[in-house]
Specification:
Distance between the termini: 44 Å
Largest sheet: 6 strands, mixed
Number of strands: 15
CATH architecture of the largest domain: 3-Layer(aba) Sandwich
Strand order of the largest sheet: 1-3-2-4-5-6
Shape: globular
CATH superfamily of the largest domain: Response regulator
Order of helices and strands: EEHEHEHEEHEHEHEHEHEHHHEEEE
CATH class of the largest domain: Alpha Beta
Length: about 375
C-alpha cells in the first residue's frame, strides 16, 4: 500500500529563561523516523513521546553547545520503503546532523545505506543484530540484540534443568533474525532445538504450529517475535493446554503485551531491561536512579506507563547529546568518534561501553530475567 509520507512535526521547544540562553536561529537538527502508527506503534509511540519530552527538557536547561535542539520526526508506519525515503529526506532536505530512530529491524536496515553514505551518525532503536554486525562506521544501536535474548533465555532454560526447546517465530524482520540467532547459539548453550515452526505476520492462529511443537518432545517453548503475534501464541499455548514453560523476547517488554495476552500471560518469562522493574532493583544497582527518574518524568507527562521502548529512545538521545558535547562539534566524523569513546554511560538499557568494534556496548548482564505474575512483572534475577 502506498502511504503518503507523514511529517509528524518539528519540535522546537520554547526557550526558557536560563543562565545561558540557547540560540534558536542556529539550532542543531536531529532527525528521526519511527513507527508511530502501524503494527509496531506500541514501540514507536513511546519512542516519539520520549524524544519530544527530552528535547524540550534539554532546551529548557540551555541546549547543547549553547544551541537549541530541533527534532524532525517522520512516521514510517513500519514500512521499510517509507523509512528509506524519510532517511533520504532527513539528509537531503532537513540537513540533520544525526538520527535517533528506526523502530524496527526492517526499517533500520532500509535506512542504513542512506545514512552511512552521508556519514550521518545513526543510533537505532531496533533489536536485530544485523544492525551492528558487521560493524558499520556510523551506525549504532541501544537495545539488546536478539542474539543476547536467545542466550539469556537458554541460560534460564538450563537453570530449570531443561534442554529441549520448541522454537516458534514470525517470518518477518525481527522474528526471522532472532530465529536465526537462536538456532546459531543453541548448541553452545547445551540446547537442542527439537521443533522449528514459523508463522506469517498477520496470522491470527498458531495452533497447527504449536501442536507440532507439543508432539516434538519440547520441554520449553521460545517465541521470537514482537507485536500481536506473541500474544496470539501465548493465548494459543494456554488454549491447547500445553503445560511447559513459555518464553517471549524483549520485543514484548511493555504493558500492552500483558493486556493483549490477558490471563494467558501468567508465568511467561522474558529477558528485559531494568526499566520494567525499577522498584525491585537493589539500591546499589547503578541503573536504579536512572530508570526511576525516567519513569517519573515519562508517566507524569504522558499519562501512560513506561515501556523499554521509550527507554531505548532516551538512551539514544542522551548518548548523542553526550557525544556532541564531547566532540564540541556537530561534524559527523567527530560525533561518531566521540560515540565510540563512550565508557560507563548508565542508561535505561544497561551500562554502555562503546568502541570502534562494538556499536552497542551492552553485555548479557544488562538483561534481567522477568516473569509475569498477577498481571505484572516480577524480577527473577
Amino acid at each position: 500500500m502506498n502511504r503518503r509520507p507523514l511529517l509528524l512535526g518539528v519540535v522546537s521547544a520554547a526557550l526558557f529563561a536560563t543562565s545561558g540562553a540557547v540560540r534558536a536561529a542556529d539550532a542543531i537538527k536531529i532527525g528521526s523516523f519511527l513507527s508511530v502508527t502501524g503494527p509496531a506503534s506500541f514501540l514507536g509511540d513511546p519512542e516519539k513521546r520520549t524524544l519530544e519530552l527530552y528535547v524540550e527538557k534539554i532546551n529548557a536547561a540551555g541546549g547543547v553547545l549553547g544551541r537549541e535542539l530541533e527534532l524532525v520526526i517522520y512516521d514510517d508506519g513500519g514500512d521499510a520503503n517509507n523509512a528509506r525515503t524519510f532517511a533520504t529526506r532527513l539528509v537531503e532536505s532537513d540537513k540533520v546532523v544525526a538520527v535517533v530512530g528506526g523502530t524496527t529491524t526492517a526499517t533500520t536496515l532500509a535506512a542504513i545505506p542512506v545514512l552511512e553514505d552521508a556519514q550521518i551518525p545513526f543510533i537505532s532503536l531496533a533489536g536485530g543484530i544485523e544492525i551492528i554486525e558487521p560493524t558499520k562506521p556510523f551506525t549504532f544501536k541501544t537495545p539488546h540484540t536478539d542474539r543476547m535474548a536467545c542466550e539469556k533465555i537458554f541460560e534460564d532454560v538450563k537453570k530449570r534443568g531443561l534442554a529441549k526447546v520448541g522454537l516458534i517465530s514470525s517470518t518477518a524482520g525481527f522474528g526471522a533474525s532472532m530465529r536465526n540467532q537462536c538456532l546459531t547459539v543453541a548448541p553452545a548453550r547445551g540446547i537442542e532445538i527439537v521443533a522449528d515452526e514459523r508463522y506469517a505476520a498477520g496470522d491470527t492462529d498458531t495452533t497447527p504450529q504449536l501442536n507440532k511443537i507439543r508432539g516434538s518432545g519440547a520441554e520449553a517453548i521460545v517465541n521470537a517475535d514482537f507485536g500481536q503475534g506473541p500474544a496470539i501464541v501465548t493465548r494459543n499455548v494456554r488454549q491447547l493446554g500445553i503445560d511447559i514453560p513459555l518464553y517471549q523476547s524483549h520485543g514484548v517488554a511493555s504493558k500492552s503485551f500483558i493486556e493483549l495476552a490477558g490471563a494467558a500471560a501468567e508465568g511467561v518469562r522474558l529477558p528485559a531491561a531494568a526499566m520494567l522493574v525499577p522498584d525491585q532493583l537493589p539500591d546499589d544497582d547503578p541503573q536504579k536512579t536512572v530508570v526511576l527518574d525516567y519513569r517519573a518524568a515519562y508517566e507524569s507527562s504522558q499519562n501512560q506507563p513506561v515501556s523499554t521502548f521509550g527507554g531505548h529512545a532516551y538512551d539514544g538521545l542522551m548518548l548523542l547529546v553526550q557525544a556532541i558535547q564531547k566532540a564540541g562539534s556537530t561534524d559527523g566524523v567527530k560525533v561518531r568518534d566521540a560515540l565510540r569513546e563512550t565508557k560507563g554511560f548508565v542508561g535505561t538499557g544497561g551500562v554502555v561501553n562503546l568502541s570502534a568494534t562494538d556499536h552497542m556496548g551492552l553485555d548479557l548482564s544488562a538483561f534481567r530475567m522477568l516473569e509475569i505474575r498477577n498481571g505484572t512483572w516480577q524480577l527473577l534475577y
